[in-house]
Amino acid sequence: MSRARHPLATPSRSKSILIEGWRATNHSLALVNQYQILELRKLPHLRLFHADAPLHTSDWNKQTATSGFSRSDRQRIDTLSSPGNEKIDCVYRIFSPFQAAAEADRRKTLTFMVTELGPFRISFDKTAQNPDCFTRGENRIVTPSSWSRDRLIDWGFAADRISIAPHGVDSATFRPLNVAERAAARKILGLHDDDVVFLNVGAAVWNKGVDLLLLAFAHLRGAGRPIRLVLRDRIDMYGFSVTSELQKLAAKNPGLFTPSTMAAVSVIHDDLSREHLRLLYSAADCYVSPYRAEGFNLPVLEAIACGTPVIVTRGGATDDFCDDQVAIRIPGTPGQHEDIAAGHRGRYITPNMDELIQAMDRFATFRPTGLDNFAAARARVLEKFSWRNAALQLAGLAVG
After folding, report:
1. Does domain 179-384 have CATH number 3.30.70.270?
2. Three-state SS for 36?
3. What distance in Å separates the CA atoms of residue 53 and residue 95, rounded to the nearest whole number?
4. Whole-angstrom Cα distance, residue 165 to residue 389?
5. Lower CB density within 10 Å: C or N end of the chain?
6. What's the whole-number mean pLDDT along residues 329-349?
């Protein structure tokens, strides 16, 4: 029986891709771009070039918002050069605001778009408000999840001009700790053996539901559960502070956020390497993401790779890679919001608070949680959602 080959395996000539995007910072689009670069560079018969797109702010830089990649990986990423006079088969844009190809530019163009609630008018470059300008000719839109695709269709893009190319996970880095390593990591974090540790590394923006996680945690802590919560502050990148969100909730609910509860919340402010993130994911007993809307939610996939079960919202972006064997999925109530002035039609899901509390309580009182087939399900997820697979799919869309 013959084995089918990938289109890039035996091309008639090498193909070239010019990536226009962000590097050397830890914004989510920049991280995805850098992971894709590392795998695209491994593909044979593919010539890769890069042009740096303007950053939104000078705060996004490799000194104050590091990408977290190793020195050798940074070198492979940073040494990609501009194409000069090279013939380009495809331009791949992965930055925001989303920018369409000029009318006179006949090169095939892929535009990476990801959205959570749905696009705003400011999500697009001022010269690219017409959806058709991104999909004329051979041009296509690439997005990482079914949820994000549906929000782009809501905006007005044709469904047959959008391709889903999921993200992946670096399972060589994000892998479980052994018993001794995990004990050492928890000790460094000031965690006790009997602490049940919940983790979330997302920004404190409304759509990510960190406020819901804090409220559920406070309820359980008030009920006497031996639980701890570890959060990551991303104010350097997104301008929203987890600490400020915690303080606001405490001021509104002083009886719920007691001194004991406040002391059980740890907030990490430092930039983290990928290895440090691995220690966090693996030291936790559960990664909790009660999001209202996400474009993909890569930290959930990284937590699973580290052997950590997750609690997520049912019906959102994580449905693409989370089933009931790797995750407890919280039902919620669909909602929508329209802001005509902002050019925004948004959809979201509000997780059920009682269900969230009950799911977290399962971890707090009955470890393990009943995810009996977690190891086998985790292996299936990692096999499908790798950065190599992501790069092969992207390359196929670009030049296959």
Report:
1. no
2. helix
3. 7
4. 9
5. N
6. 88
